[in-house]
Amino acid sequence: MITGDLKNKIDAIWDTYYSNGFGEPFSVIQQVTYLIFIKRLDEEQTLKENKAARLKKPIEKPIYTPEQQEIRWSTFKNYDPDKMLEVFTKTTKKRPITAFDFIKNVGGENSQISRYFEKATFGGYSPYLLDRVVQMIDKLNMHDKDTKGDIYEYMLGKLSSAGRMGAYRTPRHIIRMIVEMMKPSTTDKICDPASGTAGFLVMSEEYLRSHYPDEFYKAAFQNYLNNEMFTGIEFDPNMMQVGAMNLILHGVENPILHRINSLSDDNKYKEEFSLILANPPFAAKLDTDQVSKDVLSLAKTKDTELLFISLILRMLKVGGRAGVIIPTGVLFNSNKAYIAVRKELIENQNLEAVINIPSGVFQPYTGISTAVLFFTKTNSGGTGKVWFYDMAADGYSLDVKRIATDSNDIPDIINRWKKLKEEEGRTRTDQSFMVPISEIIENDWDLNINRYKEITHREIKYSLPKNIIEEIENLDEERLKILKLLKASIK
């Protein structure tokens, strides 16, 4: 967690960009991403050089050649502002590539990392601004992995408090809740088909690091985590850059990230993943010719919230699990496509839980009501009883300010999820309860919690009108007496 002096330093970097013409929060994140990555490359080269010096051997897989020293962070940070900007923007015979363009080519043409930055652009800097932010970033202590990740997450958090781009970012405490409930294991292959800033993937890595610390000392697991475990799919190249950096700074060296439309034929994944976590885009419509035919096979629709559920079922292995945020309309809409998707989850797969999320959780960007579906792909049914939880509070006010509060149902949700058998004794008047599949089918596969919840009414007895009038008259008499006393006291 970022606090104190470190927090102030990051805020100062942010303010410096803003006061020098960078008005869009996401553009600040992008530019800081590029600079942090350049700094990180220099740090990696220094480690390789130190190792080679200790072993008295040539540098193994150097990042920079001896001729490229001028574009290294440790070199150009000492230049005067004008020369520093030239290193980023101009080439010479001795410097055939700029410090910025280098990140698009690092590792060669087939490098996964270079593909994340192929659309990156550098601009808007004066010599003063570039020098200022380079010196400020240089003073950040980013040698520790956890600190690097925390710094980046703190900056990403600013997207939620300024500018429209915050809509890309799922609240981290909601992601954490879903990850805690899904319990990623060291053998899982995890995907987010709408990865954005990679919050679900990053939180999964943090969960694994917290629950399986010994595995991180094993070379085989480290190799799997760095190169195979995490897959993200994101159509927006700008979000792809940010997501890639977020994962890298959290210790995932070579995540698999695809810049494609998940719903199109470009997405070749079928029965590949054991765990999918996602907050797909919804309230949007796609022409069916943009969507893969097998995604449309479950329900022919233009609604992305339904298309992504179909896609997730296709991408999961049999036995694979999913935690997916959806708009609540998916739970009860009477349109044929919506009914077909619910029927598929309930009758052909194993739908385990539906958690209603308060409509204010995604403020200030939308007041839309959402829910989380938890299900396992079986292709043979398995739904017995579905657990419903009606979340009333998430630890923050549900208005646009989103101020921290003491009211928070998330710990209770996680604890009850761990003891689902005990939930069978709960009544329909409780905040959470079980509903058998037979009852859900009778209600046209409706998953709206209000369909099954029982509301108790407490009888309130009021005084007779004549008694209320008498009380008012008595109060008036008392008021007049006090008023007379006040008048007498000021003569």
Helix share, percent: 40-55%
Number of helices: 21
The shape, in one word, is globular
- Number of DSSP-assigned strands: 11
CATH topology of the largest domain: Rossmann fold
Total domain modules: 3
Helix/strand structural class: alpha/beta
CATH C-level name of the largest domain: Alpha Beta
Which architecture name of the largest domain does CATH use?
Answer: 3-Layer(aba) Sandwich
In the predicted model, the low-confidence regions spanning at least 5 consecutive residues are 161-167
Amino- and carboxy-terminal Cα gap:
65 Å
Strand content: 5-15%
Strand order of the largest sheet: 3-2-1-4-5-7-6-8-11
Summarize the main sheet: 9 strands, mixed
What does this 3D model show about the protein?
There is one protein chain. The protein has 3 domains: 4-146, Ferritin (Up-down Bundle), CATH 1.20.1260.30; 170-452, Rossmann fold (3-Layer(aba) Sandwich); 463-491. Residues 161-167 have low confidence and may be disordered. By secondary structure, the protein is of the alpha/beta class. Strand 9 (394-396) and strand 10 form a beta hairpin. It contains 21 helices and 11 strands. The strands form 2 sheets. The chain has a 9-stranded mixed sheet, with helices on both faces. It has a two-stranded antiparallel ribbon with strand order 9-10. The chain has helices at 4-19, 25-55, 73-76, 81-89, 99-105, 112-116, 127-138, 145-157, 172-182, 199-211, 219-227, 237-249, 293-296, 304-315, 329-332, 336-348, 410-417, 420-423, 437-442, 449-452, 465-489; strands at 190-192, 230-233, 256-258, 273-278, 316-327, 350-357, 370-376, 385-390, 394-396, 404-408, 432-436. Helix 1 runs antiparallel to helix 7 (127-138) and helix 2 (25-55) crosses helix 12. The longest helix has 31 residues, at 25-55.
